[in-house]
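Honest question from a wet-lab person: if I give you the sequences of every part of a complex, can you actually get the arrangement of the whole thing, not just the pieces? Trying it with mine:
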Amino acid sequence: MTASIINLQTSARDHHIARMAALALGLSVLEAAIPSPLPGVKPGLANIVTLIVLARYGWQTAAWVSLLRVVAGGLLLGNFLAPGFFLSLGGALCSLLILALSQYLPARWFGTVTLSILAAFAHISGQLLVVYLWLIPHTGIAYLFPVFAIAALLFGTVNGLIAAHFLVEPETELAPAS
Amino acid sequence: MMAYIKPGDWFTLLCGALFATWLAVTLWQGGAADKAIIRSGGNIFREVSLSRNQIIEVPGPLGISRIAVRDREVRVTSDPGPRQYCVHQGWLKQAGEIAICLPNQVSVELGGGKKTYDSLNY
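Yes, you can. This is the full assembly:
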């Protein structure tokens, strides 16, 4: 039997996206090990990568990195197509939507911290929407919203600061060019 | 650290904090209660105002349940039921809270404000 080799034509940009997605993936796996008081309250460290990619390479690349991270993260953590996966996906899609709009904010006034906070709020809104429309169609989940909102504010700010740090330092590159 | 935060970011932070606070205030408060609705056997036995402290005796199939109103709070003080769940529930404060003494078919519910939900499932 001859071994079949599938050759995909990949561009340098694909490799670049894959490297950054891998970095984000590493952060989300790392984060999965951190115990959380409430399911869904997570630092969202992978979003740091999304923010840096957004600032450096534009929204399209950021969307690739973010969605690849969600899918691959689902595969790695074993919840691909399980509810947790769709929560991540819903959150990521909402974040990307908000980021697509908010990247047009005047850069002189609004920095990465703003983008991060907005994305964090969009993320929890997307997640809770999925929860409400699909998993728990009960208005009682509104009681959890303030907890998620406070977490989003906190982690959004911290992630934004970390991303801003990497963006200000000119020599830091996300993934070393191989 | 300050180099990373632009002026608009402070604005976003402030808005986020205000939004979170507003959410907590609106979603975590059932609204002030202004009356207690006492039911017996499925019918409304009495609706009492919370402004006057009093003890109300409500007859049921097993005997008398006593409901106390004090300082705009309500509790079931005694009930002939075997498990005393409604008594152990203690003081009810917010609109929508309810204590049900099922064996004696007596319940007391705080009304007023806006009802946050009309049923609970466990």
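Two things worth pointing out. The first helix of chain A runs from residue 12 to 32. The radius of gyration of chain A is 17 Å.
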